Amino acid sequence: MSYREHDFEDPFDPVEFVEHLMQSVVSRQRRKDALEVGPKRGSNTDLKSSPKSDRWSPGTSQKQGGETPPATTSHGKKKAELPSAEVDSFDPQSLLSAFDEALVDLNALSERVERRVDKLMKVIQKEEAETKGAVKSVEKSVENASSQFQELDDRINNVAKKVVHLGDQLEGVNATRSRAEDALQLMGYFAKFHDSEEVDDDVFMVSSRIHEAALIMHKLHLIALELPQDRFLVAKERIAYKYVAVQRTVVKRFEDAYATTNVEEMKQCANTLLPFGKGYEDCMSRFIELAQQGQFTGKDIFADIASVVNRVSDLILKIFENAEIVLSKFVSSVYAKHLQKHIIAQLKKVREPDLEVYLKTLNELYMRTTKLSSTLSKCKMGNDSGFLTRMTKSVFKQHLEDFMTVELDNLTERCSGVLNEHKDIIAQRKAATTGLRRKANDDVCEDLVSHELAATILHEHKAAMLRCANLSAPTELPQNAAKLFDALMDSLVNQHLMPAVEVGLNALPSAEPKNPPDISFLRLVENTSSIIQLLEKHFRDFVVPAVGSSPIHADCLHQKKELFQNLQGKLDTGVDRCISAQAGYIRYILNNEQKKSDFRPEDGAAALGFTPACNHAAAYLNAQLQRILQCVDGKNLQACLMELGTRFHRVLIDHLQQFTYSYTGGMVAICDINEYRKCIKKFKVPLLDTLMEVLHSLCNMLIVAPENLRQIMSEEANLASIDRQVVLNFIQLRVDNKSGKLAKILNF
């Protein structure tokens, strides 16, 4: 089949077409060669069939069988392969003829494709026109449907308006008719009350219709209130009497329903009495009374109240419309009748014997009541969040009014008792000795200040502050806390620490003692400082949170500062006098035990080493150092050691300048200074070490050869930092200074 007869839908492959064209050319060449050689037997059939087989059609090369598939090109297409002999005999004219024939075939194929495309375009245009017509038809249908729907919606709205209007008219007619019927009925009942004292209508005679009778009487009562007194006095009195009687009957019916636990009947009675002001109040009052009967019989009234209120609150929600109001009235009644009675009884038992027990009981009961109120706040009692708080305050009102006075009296009394006990102990100890100044050093001032007493007073104040924070109103708390703080400072500082420090000051030795001075005042300083630190912490933990940022906070700080400054001034005075006594006793030791011969010994009479006076003074200084380390700490320790070391240095300078030194005596003096330096090293104060080094350098000037004095004075670093006159004063203590030789060397 030629390509002209091939179906249009078959795919056209140019590469395949060229390959077939090449094969056709080769076949033509073979036939030409065969004709030139001569036909062979059986070749006619092949020659006749060959032209037909040379015709190309799409897919021909794939459909022919029995042939070896040709090689493929780089595009994946098959590639014709020609034998080398055939290539040598290739005829270009045949190839040209084949190309011409192929061009004719391609033109025919192109025309056929164009006709096919034109035909398909006409079909598409026809279908497009039909589709547009269908779409326009559908659009018209949609527009018609939309307009019809809008029309229907408008008609529905009009009908609805008419229905609503008709309903309003019917309702108005019905309400008018109902009011007319009610008015006619009420007029009939009013006429009966006007004509007769007793109305024999079934509504008032049958007990099951009591709720209907109550509604009628309420309306008659409202009408009667507007009628003139002179014309309808009798009728108004009869209606008023019946009005009250009906309320009582409904209330009685409510009580009977409560006795039988008929919740529905109680609810109906409550709803019936709701328009009746007084009747509804009576109903609520009776319910509150009945709900409390036989309750609160347990040992813990707080647990009983919580249980009863939770149970009754559920019942109130089922019966009353305004359940929150009823529940709040019930809780108010319980607090006033039962809880307050219990609290008054409990506090009355303990008020007289012991104020401390009374305050503890009051605080405990108040906290338990507050906890109870917090538990009951989960019940619905309206939007008043402060209701239970006010109830709690009202229960304790008479006890909270004088609470602060009682608290101050109790705190003052407790602190006074502790102070008196401490004074009695001190007095007994004094009586057991021959005098305060003859006691052992550790006992003179050690017992004057007591940590146990301070801890007891602070504990009492802490308990008072906690009660104050619980029982005081927020607006009164800062002021009440300040009052308690005043009592604390008066008891602990003015009545305990101040007198103890005064006694300690009076017991201090003189500045020039002849016996080892009693410096037990330092122990008193240690104890007082420790108590002040406890008081400061107590102030931060309990007083500051109570006074807050109010102006009272500043007042408390000012008061504390003044008292502490006054106390600190007395302590500083006592410490200064103790140090003066220590330095004075060292001076006494040196003046009485140091001999002139110690520094001007006869030749060979003295061995090098520190003197007995130095040994005694150094031993005393070491003992005082240990004493100070035991009694003082922190910054006070550094200040105390600094002051003692400075005064000791001054005593040494004054003492050394009282003697004249030979060369050997200078060596002895240096030995003494070295021993003193060992003592000062234990103070661990760098400035004191520097002072002792300078003093050691000054003593070196006592043994330096005269001709080297000027050089030493100029080169020695320790000497360069002090006044030249001080150095010259030490040089003048040398024995050889009298010869005048030194004056010539140093020009003085």
Summarize the structure in words:
This protein has 748 residues and is mainly α. Among the domains are: 3-90, no CATH class; 403-581, Tetracycline Repressor, domain 2 (Orthogonal Bundle); 594-746. The chain is 75% helix and 1% strand. The chain contains 28 helices and 2 strands. It has helices at residues 14-37, 43-54, 60-63, 84-88, 92-195, 202-205, 210-226, 233-259, 263-273, 277-292, 301-319, 323-351, 355-376, 387-395, 397-400, 403-431, 451-471, 477-506, 521-547, 551-593, 612-631, 634-656, 663-681, 686-700, 709-715, 717-720, 724-731, 741-746; strands at 71-72, 78-79. Helix 22 (634-656) runs parallel beside helix 24 (686-700). 26% of the residues are buried. The model is unreliable at 1-9, 38-86 and 434-442 (pLDDT under 50).
SS content category? mainly alpha
Strand segment count: 2
Uncertain spans, ≥5 residues at pLDDT below 50? 1-9, 38-86, 434-442
Give the mean pLDDT.
80
N- to C-terminal separation? 152 Å
Report the major sheet: 2 strands, antiparallel
**Which class of the domain at 403-581 in CATH terms?**
Mainly Alpha
% residues in beta strands: under 5%
Named CATH topology of the domain at 403-581: Tetracycline Repressor, domain 2
- Tally of separate helices: 28
Indicate the overall shape: flat
Q: What string gives the helices and strands in order?
A: HHHEEHHHHHHHHHHHHHHHHHHHHHHHHH
What oligomeric arrangement do these chains adopt?
single chain
Strand order of the largest sheet: 1-2
**Proportion of helical residues:** over 70%
CATH architecture assignment of the domain at 403-581: Orthogonal Bundle
Question: What Rg, in angstroms, do the CA atoms define?
Answer: 63 Å
